[in-house]
Amino acid sequence: MKKTLEFKAHDGEIEDIALGPDNKVVTAGRDFQCCVWQQDQLVTGLRWHENLPGIPDKAYRYQACRDSGTFLGLGTVTGSVAIHIAFSLQRLYYVKEAHGIVVTDVAFVPESRPGRELLGGHEAALLSVAVDSRCKLHLLPSRRSLPVWLLLLLCAGLIVATILLLQLAFPGFL
C-alpha cells in the first residue's frame, strides 16, 4: 500500500472512519466533531453545540459513524443514536440514550432482499451495538412525498388556471 494523502482531520484521536459515495470520507473524532471530507477538503461537519443546542459539548461525543450513501448513522459515547442525510447532515432521527453506555458501532441494514424484508415500509434501518451488550435496530420512517403523477397533474392544473386567469384579466389574450 502507498499513502496518497495525509491531512489533519481532528484535534485528538479519530474514533471511527467510514467511506462514503463519491470518494467522500466520514470521520468521528475525540474533538466532539463528525466531519465529511472530499480528499483533504472539509465538505461539512457536525458539532454537538450547533446540532443540539442546550446539550454541552463535553457530555456527548460521536463514537461511531457509517455512511450508506444516502444516510449517515452516528453513535455516541453516551449511548445516543442518530441518522442524518449524508449530503446535508440534516438530522432525521435521534434517540437520546438508546443504549445505557457507549455505542461502539453502527451499521445500516444492506439493501438486499433480506434487508428489504427487514425494512418493511421504512426508509432505512440502522443497527447499533454498545458496551451494554445490546444490539438495537433503529427504523427510519419513510418521509412522506407526493407521487410524480400527482405532482405533474398539479403543475398542469396550475398552467391551465394561469391561462384562464390571464384570459379573464386580458380579454383577447389568446
Automatic annotation (TrEMBL):
GO terms for cellular component: endoplasmic reticulum membrane. InterPro entries: Sec12-like (IPR045260), WD40/YVTN_repeat-like_dom_sf (IPR015943), WD40_repeat_dom_sf (IPR036322), WD40_rpt (IPR001680). Pfam families: WD40. GO terms for molecular function: guanyl-nucleotide exchange factor activity. The chain crosses the membrane at residues 146-170. It is found in: Endoplasmic reticulum membrane. GO terms for biological process: endoplasmic reticulum to Golgi vesicle-mediated transport; protein transport; regulation of COPII vesicle coating. This is PREB protein. It is a single-pass membrane protein.
